């Protein structure tokens, strides 16, 4: 298994509206066989910006494992829209292998903005995802976190879209964003797991940075999210990352 995880201290990354893509590596994006969720290229464009055109691999849920998915060190999974049934089936069939891959050092971003699908789907890692409350708005718990204050720009605390999220999360994690239902309505969360790290979401990511009616900070957020998802320090360094956020707030 190729697990050459590159570790970068997010607190040392300078904020900039443009950023050199990460070096060639084992980056993957998995979604449905029917094309991009919602017919929007937001995930593709963000992967190109963060990792570089031609530097990552697109997989489909039904064939991803056989095509070498677990040989990658970073994986973005989007099971939204028409990909939801394939996503749910993939998670139910591969939950244990997915947990083992992250525990061995993998970096994972996993989520869906679903129409239907399994309500209360077990994503693994002690996290479940529900599709019984959509949200137009998203609010950061802490704007010093690198997904809001990262290399592609400072986003601020509030996001707006229609719908910004279809699904929400429950379980054992650190929440990063909440929705219309208040702070218990978690749209984005993270968790260190073994030697690796996982980010969970119910966001409609393909629209982020792609639609004129969505708040423009969604563009920077999407790219910060992917960058952080790959470069997040190991579990022992997450406390240092929190301290770096406190230092940034004090400098402001």
Brief account:
This protein is of the alpha/beta class and 252 residues long.
Topology:
Elements: E1 27-31, H1 42-51, E2 56-60, E3 74-78, H2 84-103, E4 107-111, E5 121-124, E6 127-130, E7 135-140, E8 149-150, E9 153-154, E10 158-165, E11 168-171, E12 174-179, E13 182-193, E14 196-201, H3 217-231, H4 238-251
Parallel strand pairs: 1-2, 1-3, 3-4, 4-14
Antiparallel strand pairs: 5-6, 6-11, 7-10, 7-12, 8-9, 12-13, 13-14
Helix pairs in contact: 1-3
Walkthrough of the structure:
This protein is α/β, with parallel strands linked by helices and 252 residues long. It is built from four helices and 14 strands. The protein has a nine-stranded mixed β-sheet with strand order 2-1-3-4-14-13-12-7-10, with helices on both faces. It has a three-stranded antiparallel β-sheet with strand order 5-6-11. A two-stranded antiparallel ribbon has the order 8-9. Helix 1 packs across helix 3 (217-231).
List descriptors.
252 residues; alpha/beta; Rossmann fold; nine-stranded mixed sheet; three-stranded antiparallel sheet; 4 helices; 29% strand; globular; disordered N terminus; disordered C terminus
């Amino acid at each position: 298994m190729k697990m050459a995880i590159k570790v970068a201290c997010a607190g040392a990354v300078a904020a900039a509206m443009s950023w050199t893509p990460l070096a060639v590596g084992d980056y993957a994006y998995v979604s449905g066989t029917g094309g991009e969720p919602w017919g929007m290229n937001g995930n593709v464009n963000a992967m190109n910006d963060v990792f570089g055109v031609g530097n990552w691999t697109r997989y489909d849920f039904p064939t991803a494992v056989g095509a070498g998915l677990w040989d990658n060190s970073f994986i973005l999974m989007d099971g939204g829209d028409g990909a939801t049934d394939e996503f749910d089936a993939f998670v139910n069939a591969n939950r244990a292998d997915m947990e083992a891959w992250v525990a061995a050092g993998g970096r994972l971003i996993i989520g869906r903005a679903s129409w239907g699908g399994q309500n209360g789907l077990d994503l693994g890692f002690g996290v479940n995802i529900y599709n019984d409350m959509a949200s137009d708005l998203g609010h950061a718990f802490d704007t010093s976190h690198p997904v809001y204050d990262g290399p592609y720009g400072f986003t601020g605390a509030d996001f707006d879209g229609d719908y910004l999220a279809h699904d929400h999360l429950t379980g054992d994690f650190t929440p990063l964003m909440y929705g219309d239902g208040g702070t218990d309505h978690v749209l984005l969360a993270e968790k260190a797991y073994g030697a690796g790290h996982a980010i969970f979401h119910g966001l409609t990511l393909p629209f982020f940075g792609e639609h004129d009616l969505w708040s423009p900070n969604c563009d920077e957020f999407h790219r910060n999210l992917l960058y952080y998802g790959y470069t997040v320090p190991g579990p022992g360094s997450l406390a240092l990352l929190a301290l770096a956020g406190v230092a940034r707030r004090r400098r402001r």
